[in-house]
Amino acid sequence: MENRTAQIQNITYDDGIVKKFMLATIVWAGVAFTVGLLIALQLAYWKFNFNLEWLTFGRLRPLHTNAAIFAFAGNAIFAGIYHSTQRLCKTRLFSDALSNIHFWGWQLIIVAAAITLPLGLSQAKEYAELEWPIDIMITLVWVVFAVNFFGTLARRREKHLYVALWFYIATIITVALLHIVNSIEIPVAFMQSYPVWAGIQDALVQWWYGHNAVAFFLTTPFLGLMYYYVPKVVNRPVYSYRLSIIHFWALIFIYIWAGPHHLLYTSLPDWAQNLGMVFSIMLWAPSWGGMINGLLTLRGVWHLVRTEPIVKFFVGALTFYGMVTFEGPLLSIKSISSVGHYTDWIIGHVHSGTLGWNGFLIFGIFYYLVPKLWKTELYSKKLANQHFWIGLTGVLFYYISMVTAGITQGLMWRAIDPKGQLVYPDFIETVTRIIPLYWVRALGGSLYIVGYILFVYNIVKTIKSAPASQSDTVVEYAAPAKSEQITSPEQGHRKLEGMATVFSILAFIAVLVGSLIEIYPTLSLQKYLNPEQMTEPYTALQLAGRDIYTKEGCYLCHSQMIRQLPDDVLRYGPASTIEESMYDHPFQWGSKRTGPDLARVGKKYPNLWHFRHMLNPRDITPNSIMPNYYWLAENNTDFFILRKKVSVMKMLGVPYNDNMLANADRLAEDEAKIIAEDLEKQGAPKGLERKEIVALIAYLQSLGQKAKVAAPVAPQK
Amino acid sequence: MKEGLKYFTDTHLTSIGLLLFFTFFVGIVFWVFRKGSKNYYNQSAQMPLEDDL
Prior knowledge:
- The structure holds two protein chains of two kinds.
- Chain A is an all-alpha fold.
- Chain A is built from 25 helices and four strands.
- Chain A is globular.
- Chain B has one domain (2-46).
- Chain B has helices spanning 2-9, 11-32, 38-45.
- The interface between A and B is large, with 42 and 30 residues.
């Protein structure tokens, strides 16, 4: 290939690995969608967990998000990257062995997630719930992917790196950085660990990770795929290659800063909040640049939208991308965030992104790739068209119902009458009001699944019609004479694109700058703490209870962060302080209030209230949609491991004394006895002192009680 | 706390930051429109369309 006179070579692409990732995508999509529908139904009607602890919302919601992001979108990304990279580089993938390790390793990770998450083995950090052994596996498999990808780039026969490849490079580098930094944790047991970050540190690192999971897992790789497959399908070059370069650099430079918009009005320092908001608003420009570039690629062939289902899906995907990247910056404006945050508006927003943008792009690509790779024709264009319309209706039902629910609830929470009191002081009123919309959402999700079933049927029929003997694609490659290679002189950016390593380093620097400036100042957490408001560490029993709280995924419906907003303070008490979460590994601020905030729930109700509420929330709040947690009164707390837990916490900087280190288990047992006796006196059954529910009550009663805070506002009647 | 915030309250530094980013952005825009690049970008844009596989 190095020879300069024209010479013909045969290149055999590895289509097998692409097919494998495609089939995995299709299978896991079914899991992600079905679990999503199940938990959607649980919010509409609480009995849909069938009274099983493994199927509660708190445990299945992480499974749903992990399956949707890492299994459905993840496998699709790998399929698309492996398919397009070989063709753009005119070479077979670097190593068949690495390709297969990548494939099976990734599936193993997903299976591990599907087993551990329903069991409650979770780090309680959104989209990063998987425990440390799985985190290590993810890192290893990602390295395998990176070696395989960069190895392929190194062996390419094309000088120039097409813009899609840039997006893939940025994805691989940044996801590695995000995953490693956010997952630095100290193991406590085989499937348990505490993150080294605490409180605002953990919040900032988590949402730097969380938002960039959206940016670099659900956006940049998909933009790369868009820049390859949209031109390919309509057989026209991208509208403006120049715009794609500007799009790329502006997007990765700005995206990395946007994370703090998840933490507006919290106790995160103002400068970080404002930084996050400003950069989020700036994202409007590059996002829309990319969308316009994609849509205008269709100039002159718009009629294809009428006839070609693939083009329908692409146009649908790009339109959703445009809408969602318009809405995202909007929601990052502080005043709008104050209405939308913690409500279903955000749920609607992310689903228009994943179902509309990611989902539709994947479906479009698959309708294109399956016939191509299996060397046959698509079984039915008509079914594919129906899939599009049914899916689109589903997404719209989903989105509109959730935005309506979110705004309704957000406005009810903040409604204050002329006397300065809350108009809806009972949280449950704001929940029952939006239950009908939860049913509409479930209907939308069901329609999307109906579309998906048509898709599966169509794909299966297509593959069945394929010729029996399948072979990899072989392409004849005529190595151009040197003089015919890219004619203009190689300098500047051109040379740069030829040098994958240098390019990768520059992209790495681009994401590192924002990350460092934003995260570094909070690494020295001490600077932000007021010595007069320091918090006491949790007692051993409270710590045990906290781990049950994280295990059950309570944070997915209950926040622990009273924002600096009048209605939050009126409803829940003084705004949360930095000090209050200073020992929280991990932080539990939450991102959604399906139920009320718990930051100051401690000592608000008697122990028995919590006991009865856990066993059947409807005994206390008639219309509650929270599941019954009867197993908490049956399962025993693991007291023995507390010494280990306390020692890990001490290592992370929580000031426990020697007595605590040596006797954590006995101290916890003593504390449990007091609570159990109190419960018994009030009429609860005997023998609860070793049960999980007692530890959980100890933790709940400590919330908001550990730090000195400003004088509380008069409670509301 | 003050130390952590120092960087952001120093308007000179933030202005320099703004200037750097803005220059970088404008630089890229000018760069992609430089003379003689048109042909090259047109070739690049054709890359996905070179085969039908």
